[in-house]
Structure formats: structure tokens, C-alpha cells
């Protein structure tokens, strides 16, 4: 008899882990963006999408609210806002 | 062909006949000769395998876990402290359902440092999810290695197998062994064809996080598989007997138990001594017998119960001690038998203390006299003090 033993790549994306998020989440202002892509690269969850200026956003199904994207943004175009009551 | 061989050489020959692709082990007395011989076979070109040198047993176990996960039949062996260092990986190997075969050359655990034989090392890892079999002699060990791969690699089983051989007594003992030919073993043991493996063409992750939502099912699956092994193992034993003519691969062996009034239960090489004592006592008219446990995990509870059903007095010989409780085998024999049976436990032979014919005779008579769950046999009382001394 066998139970859960192995997983194929990307299958863990079935688990929507955004519910584990801390008290804050990123709010992309989409005003000063220069399409440098730093937020996308630093995200430990790989849950930021976007390829053009002012079009980046975080997938809140996976975002943990760590704030690294807001911290690294050279244009301060990402704000961390309260997570409360917005789910 | 019958050959007069040192145990370790015979075990290395048996492992070689199974054509492992990767061998990794770290030297530790009394296991060293086994890997030494295997490394020689590879260096001579007699065995097409990779021997991977490592810095510790933890790494040796990790290497064979990795190679087996890649779909390659793998072999390792260790002893005592080495097995303790491997312990973390030993559990992982079973949890990841990798049918690695390991020979454990049974040796005492420190402290005090002791390189001699008892079975504390492998018995301490009885809960790890490995199939554990104990050999009485070198022929049996050779047979269990060959059959061990076959049992573990069954797609329904996929569990690792530990063949336990008493250190020095078997590993360094010279005996005649009927060594099968490569052709015979190739016919008996097909190439390893796992139902899952790591493959860049078909990516897969193994050994992942399993939270409260999935973990207990993984344990249940191993437990149910262990129960299946109680049926599968004797089937492989029959197949083995047909091919090689020997009955080595089994759950238990009954020796002159039919009309026995007192029976000992034991595992490993001590069974040879017990059989000799039984023959002598039988000549004097005493009705004595032996129940040898070959397969300790899965524990053959039903077979044990049946074998001992008509025996009123039972003595369990443990070459291990669950300190603060009793010998490990005693607990399980007690649990397997009805409450009215008189079962005594004897701890003996720890750290290489000789188990003589006299010791066995006294255990037979003590088993009939008075029930005691944990009697240490052949203690030197002059070495025991109530207060610290140097």
C-alpha cells in the first residue's frame, strides 16, 4: 500500500498558501514603475507577475506579505497595506 | 558451489551476485571486510558498480538513498555506532519507500566502547520501517541477501531490507557456504525496475513536506505493506527453495518444538548453540525446543502464537535490552502469546559476553522454575557496586 510519496513539478501550486500571510500585503501603486523587474526577482514565492511599466501585481493566493518587493522598489511604487478585512 | 569462506567474504559475494549499481559504506568493525571485498571486486572489474567513498555513515546512507531513488539497485552495510549515525537516513529510506539492502554486522553500542557482538544496534531501529531478518549462519545470511532484494523490490512492497548478521561470530567466522552461480541468481532476481524514480525526462520530487493532512496515511501505508510482507516473504521463500533447495527465507523456524515442554525463542547465531544444547538435553529425555525468529520486522505474531500454542514454558533470549523495560523480543513474544503461558525473559551475550552451552542449559531450567521478565544471565557480581568506585 502506498500514500502520498512523490510530487510532479508545479503540483504544489494547488496549495493556495496566501492564507498564511502576515498582517500586511503589497499594494502596487502602478504610477512610478520603470519596469526594472526587481520586485519580481526578489519575491521568494515567485508570485509577482508583470512585463510592462505600471502593470506589475502580486498573486495574493500565494503572497506571504514579507514586504521584500516594497523594500527593494527603487521608485517606492509599492506600499505594504493592512491585510485586515480585505480577504 | 560449496566454498569454505570467511563470513564477510561470503556476504560480499552474495551482494555481488545481486549486481548492485552503487555501493557506499563507511568502514566500521566488524563490517569492514564486507565493503573491502566489494571494493576489490569493483577494482578488479568483476563487478560493474560504482563504489562511492564517503566521510561518514550518514553520508553513506544518503548516497545509497540518492542512487536508489535514481532507479539503481544499491547496497550498504554498517554496524553499531555507524547505524546510529545513519539513523536519520534509515527512517528516510523507509519513508521514501526505497528498497535498499543493508547488511548490519550486529555490534554493541557505546558507552563503554565495545566492538563485540550483541543486537542492540539493529533492534534499536526496529521501528524504522525496514524489513529486518536475522541470520543464524553464513549460508542463511547469503540466502537472505539474495532473497532480500527480491522481497524489498516487489512493486507491492518497495521497502528497505536489513539483513542482520552477528558481528565476528558470523562476519569473521569461517564456514562452508553453498554459493549460487551468477546465472542462478540472475534467473531468480530480475533487474531492478522501480515503479517510480528520479528521471530528468519525467521530473518528480521525493521526500517532500507532509503535513498533518497527509503524514499519518504514509505511516498507515507502510504498516499495511508490512502486514502484506508476512504473506509475500514466505512466497519468495518457496520460490527460493525451488531454485536453490534451501529453506532459509522464512518468518520463523521451529526446531524440535512439536512435543516441547520448554522452548526458547531467539534470533541470530545463538540459535546454533541452542540447537546443540537441545539435541543434548533431548538425549537425556528433556522435552526442549527452539523457536527461531528469522523475520523480526514485520513481526510474525500469528506464526509465533501458533508455534508456541502447545508449549507451556517459554524463555526468550534477548541480545539487547530496552533499558528500563525488558529485552525487546520478550515484550513482543509476551504480546503474541496467551496470558496463561509462562514466559520468562533472559538478557544475555551483551557486548560479546560468550553464551555457552551451560548458559543455555541454565536458561532452559530457569524458564521452568519461576517466571521472571528480565533476568541477566552470567553476570559477574564482583563488578557491581552500590556506589561509585574507580
Describe the structure.
The complex is a heterodimer of chains A (87) and B (390). Chain A is α+β, with helices and mostly antiparallel strands and 87 residues long. Chain A has one domain: Alpha-Beta Plaits, CATH 3.30.70. In chain A, strand 3 and strand 4 form a beta hairpin. The radius of gyration of chain A is 15 Å and the shape is elongated. Chain B has 390 residues and is an alpha/beta fold. Chain B folds into two domains: 243 residues, Thiamin diphosphate (ThDP)-binding fold, Pyr/PP domains (Rossmann fold, 3-Layer(aba) Sandwich), CATH 3.40.50.970; 130 residues, Rossmann fold, CATH 3.40.50.920. Chain B is 39% helix and 18% strand. In chain B, the strands form three sheets. In chain B, strands 3-2-4-5-7-6-13 form a seven-stranded mixed β-sheet, with helices on both faces. In chain B, strands 10-12-11-14-15-16 form a six-stranded mixed β-sheet, sandwiched between helices. A two-stranded antiparallel sheet of chain B has the order 1-8. In chain B, helix 1 runs parallel beside helix 6 and helix 10 packs across helix 11. The longest helix of chain B has 30 residues. The radius of gyration of chain B is 21 Å and the shape is globular. The mean pLDDT of chain B is 97. Chains A and B meet through strand 1 of A and strand 9 and helix 8 of B.
* Highest-level CATH class of chain A: Alpha Beta
Strand content of chain A: 15-25%
Terminal residue distance of chain A: 40 Å
* Tally of discrete structural domains of chain A: 1
Trace the largest sheet of chain A across and list its strands.
2-5
CATH top level class name of the largest domain in chain B: Alpha Beta
Q: What is the CATH-assigned architecture of chain A?
A: 2-Layer Sandwich
Sheet with most strands of chain B: 7 strands, mixed
Q: What is the oligomeric state here?
A: heterodimer
Amino acid at each position: 500500500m502506498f500514500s502520498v510519496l512523490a510530487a510532479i513539478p508545479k503540483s504544489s501550486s494547488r496549495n493556495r498558501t496566501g492564507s498564511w500571510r502576515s498582517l500586511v500585503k503589497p499594494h502596487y501603486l502602478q504610477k512610478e514603475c520603470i519596469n526594472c523587474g526587481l520586485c519580481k526577482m526578489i519575491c521568494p514565492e515567485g508570485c509577482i507577475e508583470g512585463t510592462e511599466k505600471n502593470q506589475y501585481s502580486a498573486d495574493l493566493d500565494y503572497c506571504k506579505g514579507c514586504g521584500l518587493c516594497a523594500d527593494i522598489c527603487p521608485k517606492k511604487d509599492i506600499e505594504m497595506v493592512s491585510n485586515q478585512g480585505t480577504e | 558451489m560449496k566454498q569454505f569462506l570467511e563470513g564477510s567474504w561470503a556476504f560480499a559475494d552474495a551482494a555481488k551476485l545481486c549486481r548492485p549499481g552503487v555501493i557506499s559504506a563507511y568502514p566500521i568493525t566488524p563490517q569492514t571486510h564486507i565493503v573491502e571485498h566489494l571494493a576489490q571486486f569493483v577494482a578488479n572489474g568483476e563487478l560493474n558498480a560504482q563504489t562511492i567513498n564517503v566521510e561518514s555513515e550518514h553520508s553513506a546512507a544518503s548516497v545509497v538513498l540518492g542512487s536508489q531513488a535514481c532507479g539503481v539497485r544499491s547496497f550498504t552495510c554498517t554496524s553499531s555506532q555507524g547505524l546510529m549515525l545513519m539513523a536519520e537516513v534509515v527512517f528516510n529510506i523507509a519513508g521514501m519507500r526505497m528498497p535498499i539492502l543493508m547488511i548490519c554486522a550486529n555490534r554493541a553500542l557505546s558507552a563503554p566502547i565495545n566492538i563485540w557482538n550483541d543486537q542492540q544496534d539493529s533492534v534499536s531501529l526496529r521501528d524504522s520501517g525496514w524489513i529486518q531478518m536475522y541470520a543464524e549462519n553464513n549460508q542463511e545470511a547469503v540466502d537472505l541477501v539474495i532473497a532480500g532484494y527480491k522481497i524489498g523490490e516487489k512493486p507491492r512492497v518497495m521497502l528497505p531490507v536489513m539483513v542482520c548478521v552477528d558481528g565476528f561470530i558470523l562476519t569473521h567466522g569461517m564456514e562452508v557456504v553453498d554459493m549460487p552461480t551468477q546465472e542462478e541468481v540472475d534467473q531468480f532476481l530480475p533487474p531492478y525496475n522501480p515503479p517510480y524514480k528520479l528521471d530528468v525526462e519525467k521530473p518528480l520530487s521525493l521526500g517532500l513536506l507532509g503535513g498533518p493532512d497527509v503524514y499519518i496515511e504514509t505511516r498507515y501505508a507502510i504498516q499495511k505493506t508490512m502486514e502484506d510482507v508476512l504473506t509475500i516473504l514466505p512466497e519468495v521463500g518457496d520460490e527460493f527453495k525451488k531454485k536453490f533447495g534451501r529453506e532459509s527465507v522464512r518468518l520463523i523456524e521451529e526446531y524440535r518444538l512439536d512435543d516441547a515442554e520448554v522452548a526458547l525463542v531467539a534470533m541470530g547465531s545463538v540459535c546454533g548453540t541452542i540447537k546443540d544444547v537441545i539435541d543434548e538435553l533431548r538425549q537425556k529425555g528433556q522435552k526442549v525446543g527452539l523457536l527461531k525468529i528469522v523475520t523480526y520486522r514485520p513481526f510474525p505474531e500469528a506464526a509465533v502464537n501458533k508455534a508456541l500454542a502447545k508449549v507451556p514454558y517459554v524463555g526468550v533470549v534477548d541480545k539487547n535490552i530496552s533499558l528500563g523495560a525488558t529485552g525487546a523480543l520478550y515484550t513482543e513474544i509476551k504480546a503474541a502469546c496467551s496470558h496463561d503461558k509462562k514466559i520468562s525473559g533472559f538478557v544475555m551475550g551483551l557486548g560479546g559476553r560468550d553464551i555457552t552451552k551451560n548458559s543455555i542449559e541454565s536458561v532452559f531450567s530457569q524458564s521452568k522454575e519461576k517466571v521472571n521478565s528480565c533476568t541477566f544471565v552470567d553476570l559477574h557480581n564482583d563488578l557491581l557496586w552500590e556506589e561509585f568506585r574507580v
